[in-house]
Amino acid sequence: MLSVDITKNLPDFSLSLRFSIEQDILVLFGPSGCGKTTTLRSIAGLLQPDSGQIINDGEVFFDSTAKIFIPPRQRRIGYMFQDYALFPHMNVHRNIWYGVRDHDQETQEMFEKLTSLLKIAHLDKRSPGQLSGGEKQRVALARALMAQPKILLLDEPLSSLDTETRREVRNELREMQRIWNIPFILVTHDPDEARFLGDQVLYMQKGRQIGLAAPG
């Protein structure tokens, strides 16, 4: 279980959140600029909250009272950025393998499983500039899961996709979460995405948690 209880003073408001998530999909839903991405960055360790705790399965990532702050690389958290952040000078194969420490049979099998499930095996030698938006999204998802994360964070993963591709990819996201069985925390300002993808939806406004419920 991931437990988050943090505060962070921002230029326009103070972020204050408290929630827990098991092995399911939590959607952070709210208008742009309400603190959703700041929440992801705090969980990932890219931003340090002012106070509180972040604990995953008993492992303390952050504790302001105990002065604990675990660096991002030691948290084993996958992060899919809004712009996908693929390396333009690397082909798809090298992008997916980037940051993987052990190049053994197990990781090779994982690579083959991911590229097969996401239907991107044929893109292996292409550069990011030769990919569509949906293909870039799938490559970024494969790269994030290749690192065998304990948690996956996704920042507006469907925002730049056309309607048909968005429908396909959101089905794939639910399937990948079911197979990997780790917490997914996903940011969106689209109510349809929140209802379809979220096992729970945390409603945010100006850094505040205004509700937490199963989508209905």
Q: How would you describe what is shown here?
A:
The chain is of the alpha/beta class and 216 residues long. The chain has helices at 36-44, 92-97, 105-117, 133-146, 163-180, 191-197, and strands at residues 2-9, 14-21, 25-29, 51-56, 59-63, 68-69, 77-80, 151-155, 184-188, 200-205, 208-213. It has one domain (2-213): P-loop containing nucleotide triphosphate hydrolases (Rossmann fold). β5 and β6 form a beta hairpin.
In short:
This protein is of the alpha/beta class and 216 residues long. It is 31% helix and 28% strand. It has helices at 36-44, 92-97, 105-117, 133-146, 163-180, 191-197, and strands spanning 2-9, 14-21, 25-29, 51-56, 59-63, 68-69, 77-80, 151-155, 184-188, 200-205, 208-213.
Overview features:
single chain; about 220 residues; alpha/beta; Rossmann fold; 6-stranded mixed sheet; 5-stranded antiparallel sheet; 6 helices; about 30% strand; globular
What's the shape? globular
CATH class: Alpha Beta
User: What proportion strand?
Assistant: 25-35%
The largest β sheet comes out as: 6 strands, mixed
The name of the CATH superfamily reads P-loop containing nucleotide triphosphate hydrolases
Strand order of the largest sheet: 7-8-9-3-10-11
Mind telling me which CATH architecture this is?
3-Layer(aba) Sandwich
Q: Could you say how many structural domains there are in total? A: 1
Name the poorly predicted regions.
none
Over all CA atoms, what is the radius of gyration? 17 Å
Helix percent reads 25-40%
The class by helix and strand makeup works out as: alpha/beta
Instruction: Write down the CATH topology.
Output: Rossmann fold
| Strand/helix succession | EEEHEEEEHHHEHEHEE
Count all strands and give the number. Answer: 11
Question: What's the pLDDT, averaged over the residues?
Answer: 92
Instruction: Give the helix tally.
Output: 6
